[in-house]
Amino acid sequence: MVRLLELDARYADVLRQRFAIDRSALDGYLAEEVLGWSMSRLVCEDQEIVGLIQVRQLDSEKRCGLLGTRLIPEVWGSGVNATVKRLMLQLLFAERPDIDRVYLCIEPGNTRSIRAAQKLPYAEEIGGAEVPDELLRAAPASVRNYRWFVIRKAVFKRKI
Asked: How many domains does the chain have?
């Protein structure tokens, strides 16, 4: 059974060991959440932390954010990715009515993640020109060449 846990400093060791997230990065994620700039959750499967999912750069004015997921290789291809994205988006759209779009960006060579995003019935692949400038400015220049997807709240709610 897959579920989301609130991000908490007591998981610092697991995050460092499994995802190379050091304490200063964790503290930053926690601060962003308090400020309303992000939503981060741990992915738990059968009592084991297997990932981290985040919607960062939340912008009430632009009504959007950027979704990112890190999972341990042992759960790749198991359906955890799709399940955890659905759970996170349900939580985000319920708790943040000011957000109506979430973007995903995937490195062009990451074919496994691209295929996983293409399988999501509520995700639409778009060109980088359709991504809000605010999201692009906050990322390295190379991100402009990434594969981009958008998840619109209205489409998500119809398809789940």
From this structure: 1
Q: Tell me, what CATH number does 101's domain have?
A: 3.40.630.30
What is the number of other CB atoms lying within 10 angstroms of the CB of residue 98?
13
- Using left for φ > 0, alpha for ψ between -120 and 50, and beta otherwise, residue 123 falls in beta
Higher pLDDT, 57 or 129: 57
Q: How does pLDDT run across 44-53, given as a tens digit for each residue? A: 999 999 999 9
User: What HEC string does 63-106 produce?
Assistant: CEEEEEEEECHHHCCCCHHHHHHHHHHHHHHHHCCCCCEEEEEE
Q: Name residue, tokens 């939580």.
A: 91
Range of the domain at 129: 2-159
Q: Which of 57, 77, 78 is nearest to 68 (CA)?
A: 57
